[in-house]
Design brief:
Blueprint (H helix, E strand, L loop, with lengths): L1 E6 L3 E8 L2 E9 L6 H14 L9 E6 L5 H11 L5 E2 L20 H14 L3 E6 L2 E7 L5 E8 L1 H11 L19 H28 L4 E5 L3 H5 L7 E2 L3 H11 L1
Parallel strand pairs: 1-4, 4-5, 6-9, 9-10
Antiparallel strand pairs: 1-2, 2-3, 6-7, 7-8
Length: 252
């Protein structure tokens, strides 16, 4: 069985594949000071909760944008699964041409997501990742990674409102009853929800003008379902895009 792990700045996505089938998946908070032992024991508890024997795990593939966690996860793989993990962009090569000014600066998560989207949906394609940052990655018809637009994530923006404005509360990010807020919470929800829809639609429009009208748009990330519910510009929401990308890289 293949254990895929997507280490992001805010959350970590975990998934276990048996062949092409994702048999279990879950998300945890990214905690930078945990040891390999702590991650290993936590992973085993989750696996057993899903009825998976950890001894059946024979391969690990990891995408990470948090370098301090790479060593603990390497130790976790070797100690608890007897399998040194392969890291995307390092020991696990990503067969994607990167046409940016500095290809080495492109995050492994962006490339894994781009590879996954192209392999599953074809190109040209835009991958919108509603994570810690909101990213819009462009892949050409031939599978060439062209670049990315990066904006502050919804969570970061909401937290900035709360922390910088003394009278604004911390809120749940969701669709308000109306774009015209009648109370503080609905006013903030309106600005965040419709503001990020507007941002997404405009950036998608501009990228499609360069890639072509038939460009597909795939969304992923924690709030992808919420934002996608308010726009017709996104054709598909794929919450497991990066986990599938790691599987596809292992199979390549």
């Amino acid at each position: 069985m293949l254990f895929c792990i997507d280490i992001g700045n805010t959350n970590i996505g975990w998934g276990v594949f048996e062949g092409e089938k994702l048999t279990a998946s879950w998300r945890t908070a990214t905690v930078r000071d945990k040891t390999g032992d702590e991650w290993g024991l936590e992973a085993i508890l989750f696996l057993r909760e899903f009825g998976i024997n950890e001894k059946k795990i024979n391969r690990l593939a990891i995408s990470s944008v948090v370098p301090p966690l790479n060593f603990p996860f390497k130790e976790m793989g070797k100690t608890y699964f007897h399998s040194p993990p392969l890291f995307a962009g390092e020991s696990l090569k990503i067969p994607l041409k990167v046409s940016t000014d500095h290809p080495e600066e492109v995050g492994a998560d962006l490339l894994v997501g781009a590879y996954s989207a192209f392999k599953q949906y074809g190109g040209p394609v835009i991958i919108v990742d509603f994570g810690t940052a909101t990213t819009f990655s462009a892949v050409s018809k031939s599978g060439e990674f062209l670049g990315t637009s990066i904006a502050p994530g919804i969570g970061i923006s909401a937290e900035a409102l709360f922390s910088k404005a003394a009278r604004l509360p911390r809120i749940q990010i969701e669709k308000p009853p109306s774009p015209i807020g009648k109370n503080t919470i609905h006013c903030m929800q309106s600005g965040l929800f419709y503001g990020f829809i507007g941002q997404a639609e405009k950036i998608i429009q501009l990228i499609k003008e360069e890639l072509g009208a038939k460009t597909k748009v795939i969304a992923t990330g924690g709030l992808s379902h919420l934002i996608s519910s308010g726009t017709h510009k996104i054709q598909k929401v794929d919450p497991n895009l990066l986990l599938d990308g790691l599987r596809l890289l292992i199979e390549a």
